[in-house]
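User: I want to check something. If I give you two sequences, will you return the structure for each one separately, not as a complex?

Assistant: Yes, each is folded on its own. Here is the first sequence with its structure:
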Amino acid sequence: MLKIYGIKNCDSVRKAIKFLKTHDIPYTFIDFREMPVDADPIASWLKGTDIKTLFNTRGTTYRTLKLKEMHLDDKEKEAWLAKENMLIKRPVITVDNKVIVGYNETHYLENLK
């Protein structure tokens, strides 16, 4: 079963959900604010993508926490993702051992249809 992780008010998440509905692809939505993810799913996602893709350095949370000044290594970034889910680039879609991060309609057409 396809799972989509994110937050309800994120534009990219809304676009991804619209894509899934338009193409009649069943999914389960997991909202980070209602059901935060811990280290286990994040470690699993990192088997299918890299930390640079998953770790959102463009968001408000990253700037507010001043993480750039900390010069984090990959393990420290992974720990921060588990502590603060708003650092995870959205949406994260998991299906059949695949991990797709962010909204990219072309990528969705190739991997979800």
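And separately, the second sequence with its own structure:
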Amino acid sequence: MACCPPPPSFVQRIQTPPFTLSILRLNLALILLSFTCASPASSLTLAWEPVTGDSRVAGYEIHIGRASGQYEWILDADQEGSATDRLVLQDAESGVTYYLAARSRNHDRTQFSTFSKEIRISLDGPPIQSGELLVDDAWQWVSFQTAFMDPIVVATTAGESDGDPLVIRIAGIEPHGFWVRLQEWDYLDGRHAFESVGYVAMERGQYRLLNGAQIEAGRLVTNATKSPVWTEFSETFASTPVVVAAVTSDRGTEAVTTEIQAVGRSGFSVGMIEQEANDQQHAPERIDFIAWETSSGTVNGMQYEVGRATTEVTHRPHEIRFSTAFRDPPSLLAHLQTTNGSDPATLRWQTKSEKFATLRVVEEQSVDAETSHIPETAGYILIGQ
């Protein structure tokens, strides 16, 4: 028999950070005294599946800190032996990310299991910023309202005030901001009028919102332009997410955009594509992506909705009706989840309100004038301002 008890099984049952435990938000209070704002605090009930069939397990410890691997205090579940399945974290602060790891123990605390996989939770969800930009073909700097540590930035969908087909280029991402511009396909003159572009910046990592929705913000570097590369999620999703991805470096001068296919619970395939007339040999570029389960709710106080178009989209305008009652037109990121058509193309929106948006697939014309596109699956992320 092994000398040490096994760890609690919740870390093996639900594998996606920041939280493998079920989370209940209780007694949220905001206190204002003499115009001084105290930090909002809440109680979190942490629940897990207890270890069964091992007489050594008499309790559990939840180690908690505000930095990865640096645990400042311990919550202990005692008295109920293997039936113990929950604890309450009191006074969790809004805006603070907590790191947790669990282990089981025997009655007299002389034997402990190994630590579970570290998990992470924040009452407000992931550090995130979203907005709507007016962008033309000149590089412009976008400042973050609050500095990130390792930001992932995605912008995928421009308006269609100027009909020339284009891609969105992002580069120079730093903790305080990033550069962005519109780039027309290489066969065009390169000059483009201002378009409205929505973007999302998120701290790199895996997250679970209080409504249970899972998110992963990540990156890869690849020169794949003829065949996509498989990208594994850090943790398997409970359901197939919507994935949006953007080229976020500027190593190659040719216009290039991302293509996504085979999106599943464990990962997706992604690559780049240049205009059809090119040889599809491109320098390695950084690609940032956000994978977000279909859901709606709030994230950091902002309304959001993630979904897929109910029918497939083509080169003809396709209307998406929002299920969320936004007060104003939300920021929109949309990306094809398939590559049924071989011609290089991007999604553009023609109209957008607080209730609906129209999307269509826009092909480039470097080889021929034909722009008809066969049906594709489109996913979208909406975030209220």
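Because they were folded independently, the notes below concern the second chain alone. Residues 152 and 202 are 5 Å apart (CA to CA). The chain has one helix and 29 strands.
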